[in-house]
Design goal:
The complex is a heterodimer of chains A (about 60) and B (about 300). Chain A is mainly α and about 60 residues long. Chain A has one helix and no strands. Chain B has one domain. The chains are: A mainly alpha (about 60), B mainly alpha (about 300).
Chain lengths: ~60, ~300
């Protein structure tokens, strides 16, 4: 059985790990979105031009 | 081309003001997208949920790193909130848009009234929540109805949290308690969490407006912990309901991209300047804006 202190240390370590993953993930995701938005602007796409949003298709996402 | 930039700027404005006022991003974003850009309500709700995910992810990282959020409590409650969010996401497609608009008008009015009522406590609440220039202070999860911190139940003799609460959830509540406070009324919290999930999915808000008072006032969780835990939870809640919207092709990536990016940048900026700005007058201005927006939503819902 882990002691209370060990358990707390493990919990803290997990929290820090999750926090770092979240922060890195968020910044990476926002970076990708930024690239997409810049690409959209360069291509001259009007976001509101489409009456219906494009359908969600997993196959359309490059592997 | 200009439309994309306007969407980006709108998202940034929502992020800044939401961050300054401790308001939910969805509360501001949904009316902007529906009334300002003419998007259908469900599409606006879906895009708002994407923004909630972004801001929650950023702020949750900071709160977890500072060990402010109660991860265990958040994950247990999130099971129920996510169930509510899935149900809400399905219900949203069964209800007529006019009903959703009417519900949103009620929510806006409630938030405006709550902001008026808590004007005295706002500074303390903001300070407790925002801390020292939190770079990822989320506009999505803070509750405008949060009250001053409820004292935790502490055993006067041992100086330790009081063990257990009446009912079968005694052990679980003890396990989920944190330093200096004891979680109470877990069953009530679980039911409230389901309701928060439904509201979040229906209206595209983070649900912090329900979760923070639920944890703080009903479950005995200190306000700072409740706010941080709520901020962490709302991203998962929004993800649950966003999946429903995604599968039903309601998330427009061309709109969601610039808006989410704008909200992220705006919220980051707002959290850095919030301690340097006197938001009292801004708050009153926003109460007026919320009430006017509520009236516009109601008029739209009634087809007048």
């Amino acid at each position: 059985m882990p002691t209370g202190r060990t358990s707390n240390e493990a919990t803290f370590a997990i929290e820090v790990l999750v926090a770092r993953l979240l922060q890195v993930g968020t910044y990476v995701a926002m970076g990708l979105v930024l690239i997409g938005v810049v690409g959209m602007q360069v291509a001259g796409i009007d976001p509101l031009a489409l009456d219906v949003p494009p359908p969600f298709d997993l196959k359309a996402i490059p592997a | 081309m200009i439309v994309g930039l306007v969407l980006l700027a709108s998202g940034a404005a929502v992020g800044v003001f939401g961050s300054l006022l401790g308001l939910g991003g969805g509360i501001l974003l949904v009316p902007v997208l529906t009334l300002g850009f003419g998007l259908p309500l469900r599409e606006a709700v879906a895009i708002s949920l994407v923004s909630v995910i972004v801001t929650s992810s950023a702020s949750a990282g900071v709160y977890l790193q500072r060990h402010v959020a109660n991860l265990r409590l958040g994950m247990v409650l999130e099971l129920f909130t996510a169930m509510g969010a899935l149900a809400g996401g399905l219900i949203a497609f069964m209800l007529p848009a006019a009903v959703l608009e009417a519900l949103f008008a009620v929510l806006l009015t409630w938030v405006a009234v709550s902001m008026i009522r808590r004007r005295g406590a706002s500074a303390a609440v903001s300070a407790a929540v925002v801390a020292d220039g939190d770079p990822a202070h989320s506009p999505a999860g803070d509750s405008p109805v949060a009250e001053p911190e409820t004292p935790a139940r502490v055993d006067a003799v041992a100086g330790m949290p009081v063990a257990g609460t009446p009912g079968g959830d005694r052990d679980l509540a003890s396990d989920l308690s944190g330093p200096g406070y004891h979680v109470q009324r877990m069953r009530f919290g679980m039911v409230g969490a389901v309701f928060a999930g439904v509201v979040s999915a229906l209206l595209g808000v983070g649900g912090g407006i329900i979760k923070v008072p639920l944890m703080n006032l009903s479950m005995g969780v200190p306000l700072r912990v409740a706010t941080a835990t709520s901020n962490m939870m709302i991203g998962i809640t929004a993800t649950s309901s966003a999946v429903i919207y995604l599968l039903r092709d309601e998330i427009d990536p061309y709109v969601a991209g610039p808006v989410a990016l704008g909200v992220f940048v705006g919220a980051s900026f707002g959290s850095r300047v919030v301690n340097r700005i006197d938001v009292r007058y801004l708050r009153w201005l926003f109460v007026v804006v919320l009430l006017v927006t509520a009236a516009q939503m109601a008029i739209k819902a009634l087809g007048l």
